[in-house]
Amino acid sequence: FTNNQRKKLNPRGQEALPVAWKTPEPWSSFEAAGMLRLPVAMILLANAFRRGQGFITPSRALLSGGPMNRLAAQRARAERLELEENQKVKELLDQDLLARVKLTVAPRFRSVLRLPKKKKSGRIFVPVESSRSLDAMLALVGDHLRLPPEAFLLSVDHAADEPNTAVEPSDTPLGEVLDSDAQLSRAWDSSGRPATLKLHVAVNPQVEWPPVLGPFLRGLPDPKTTPAFQMLSFYSFKPIAPVDAVVGLMFECWRPMGVVGRVYVGPEGVNAQVAVPANAMPKFRESVEWLSEAEPQKENELTPVRAGRGWLETELNLDLLVPAGEFRAFPPFRALHVRAKEQIVQDGGLLGDALDLTPEASKGEALGPDQWHAALEDPSAIVLDCRNSYESAVGGFVGSTPLNTETFKETWAELDKILEGKPKDTPVLTYCTGGIRCVKVGAYLNQRLGMTHVGRLEGGIINYTQVHV
């Protein structure tokens, strides 16, 4: 590190540490185990001795390689490239080959785009030869802000010329709207400073941006004002294609609502565990129904066509309603992640394409809570707890047999062992946390083991507790 870099990394003059150490410390696992938090230097020294390297100073341990050093090197490289780029711009400005354009941006664009500070009111540099072309200016501003040129209007910001005048942020133009090359040229000529123009990026009221994918995105409540968050899950084993386009649709629909959680989308279906602001639940229900019937035109295109495919085969599985203060203090999810996966429930790849998971396939009878109660009365039924061992340890149905697996991929060997030699017409009842794992288990029992009397608790324990607990 240079001296300047050391000062940036540690302005108090202590031992220089790579900037990555300023991220939140991963101590939660140590604290949960009742261990004391150790100073960074002690841990580094302990690691160094464990590697048999003998005594080294903390700074050497930090700077001697590894991911932390790579991050610091990447940052230093980025800073160097930025300095080189700034030097090139300065040279072109000195040669009168570039012109400055100072921008102020409409609050609506700032909010939607989550612009960094330097883009909320910043500047761009345009080639002098194209600086008086309105089309070129619109394209440069749009590229800088990641906006389509038709979504915004450029107006001359005369208020910015007044040194002691505070200008309120506005979505509307602050001056004359530029709609021709001639107007842009006059703006340059009257700018007051050579090679400098001040423009305001205003919202075009004739264009809806960002485009609203569905009617449920209009009039959304502010998620920051919600009194609680609804924990819920849902799944579907109806085939989905193209997967990437559906991933994009879900993310663009749910992010504006303030939804957080995990959603997996694959060729075999959808698996979602999310938290929804309670004040957005009606909108979320509309969106799920709308999404389940929308089919993207082609891969990587987010414009949907109403196709009526209806991939959602289960109701929303509502879990706890968590007060907003408690949710934000101990968030189970911090962001919305919608990801493409080969399998929405990982089975270890041991089953291949042997199982038919479509709604029409034989994969056990879905039993509601009351039906499940009645089925448990059969003394000949084998009741299987298909959760992992740490889940089963919390509790289960009386008389059930836990599979005692550590991961879901161990399920198949345990099923083979438990049902070996049992008559094919033996009643087998299965349950899990949310119901999705038992869909694959039911298909395996029906289609692979040939069991003819299989039932599964629809919606799992989560759904059951909404009725009987």
Question: How would you describe what is shown here?
Answer:
The protein has helices at residues 3-9, 28-32, 40-50, 58-63, 67-94, 107-113, 117-120, 134-145, 181-189, 243-254, 281-292, 324-329, 369-376, 389-392, 411-419, 436-448, 460-468; strands spanning 98-105, 123-127, 152-156, 196-203, 228-236, 260-266, 269-277, 294-296, 304-306, 317-323, 336-340, 365-367, 382-385, 401-402, 428-431, 454-457. It has 469 residues and is an alpha/beta fold. The strands form four sheets. A five-stranded mixed sheet has the order 10-5-7-6-11. A five-stranded parallel sheet has the order 12-16-15-13-14. The longest helix is centred in the first third of the chain and has 28 residues, at 67-94.
Short overview:
The chain contains 17 helices and 16 strands. It is α/β, with parallel strands linked by helices and 469 residues long. A hairpin with a 2-residue loop joins strand 6 and strand 7 (269-277).
